[in-house]
Amino acid sequence: MWIAAAVSVVFLLTSPVQAGIKDLSSHFQDPSPDPRGFQQGDAVDIEAIPLEFHKENTVTNDLVFEGFEDDDYIDFDKILAAGSDDYIEGDEIDEIATPAPDIDIFAEPSDPKTRRARLLRLFHGRSRLQRLNIVNAHFGFNLYRSLRNDVNQTDNILLAPAGISIAMGMMSLGAGSGTHDQIYKALGFAEFVNASHHYDNTTVHKLFRKLTHRLFRRNFGYTLRSVNDVYVKKDVSVKDAFRAETKAFYFAEPQSVDFKDPAFLDKANRRIQKLTKGLIKEPLKSVDPNMVLMLLNYLYFKGTWEQKFPKEMTHYRNFRVNEKTNVRVPMMTNKGNYLAAADHELDCDVLQLPYAGNISMLIVLPRKITGMRTLEQEISPTVVDKWLKNMTNRTREVVLPRFKLEQNYDLIENMKEMGLVDIFQESGDFTRMTTDKVAMNWLKHQGIIKVNEEGTEAAALTQVGFMPLSSQIRFTVDHPFLFLIYEHRTDCLVFMGRVVNPSQS
């Protein structure tokens, strides 16, 4: 079975004051701009990027959309072979503070000391890159909980925490001191930086660059690609340092566009559709002509099950949406060796379905059809770590619905709830990006995931409460469940969501 998923994260910034944007006599010109913001053969020295900011320039390089074939994606193998990145650094394990042994890290942290102790326990023995991804997953779970409170209990949910974190990391490059601190606190980057004296704010961006290298290379047996685009209104000044850093850390370079031109929407949508293999067709329905800056992140994943589900074994069966409602859906069936665990504290069972390439989907199934709320409330990186470290392998029969989810969210209110307030107000400080007054007024997140017999396509600390599923020989997913897609080399939570009704997208 193979699953494919695609996600688009959109950040739109508009200026409350459009008058007074000055024309500059000198312009930055790139005679042959790369649509990814990274030239073939470029050797970017991260250490050489100045942290202080230079004079501003108007971005004038033309937007390029055509000729973007599979072999046009960034060849990270070539970049690494050229020695242009300190790639090994992200895999280093730094010394961190040792938390007090008497702190219960599984308790809900009402005290900052408890929260920090729990994080440091998870960080122990992990690489820098894995530690950053633990923080990213923690943010993802909190964002999921905020979003869950805004939708109906019968709604399916799909999020790409990795894509959102990457986009917010890129956003923080343009933020002034106070706004930058707010982004770092809300996303958890500040906790990561404070975990070791070896880290500073720039470490986060270096590791996002490394995460791109690690996740999106082409020789791991799956397809996972992330592309960042930055579009800037013509004649708006963008500072050199922001331009240089977005290119070096996130492979994005500001492209000058005319948001009033109807052709922009068509070209941008065609580019997104191509990059996500047609999964996301028209994410941009309209664009405010007064737009100043737009940041886009696309995430595409296609994986093939290590053990494909035989198509002849798929039959329509009942799926219990709730205690009163059943739907008939195609249920896939396979028999093989699978890792699984039972969590008696959260009253759920967990199944690991591996894809080729050390990436897998975790199916988390509450034992009671009414148990989803508790599971959603308690899930965390600590809980997932327990699941993964307490799994046993045995022959099981797995029954799983075939499903496709297509979701679109405006996340501004959710981000405000999590502490990100300034970036959506005139008080937000983006002086490291531009001298023009800007504020974010649109934050969209769109995703699609398909799960079928082939696979998926999409643009232990303690053993308390755990018992191996040694006696369970059948794992039937016939009522609402959570799913998590993890890349295990980096501990990266790429996608997560819930399926309440697989008959609805």
Automatic annotation (TrEMBL):
SMART domains: SERPIN
Keywords, alphabetical: Signal
Gene Ontology, cellular component aspect: extracellular space
Secretion signal span: 1-19
GO molecular function: serine-type endopeptidase inhibitor activity
Domain called Serpin: residue spans: 141-502
GO BP term, example: blood coagulation
UniProt record similarity statement: Belongs to the serpin family.
Name this polypeptide is given: Serpin domain-containing protein
Organism from which the protein derives: Salarias fasciatus (Jewelled blenny)
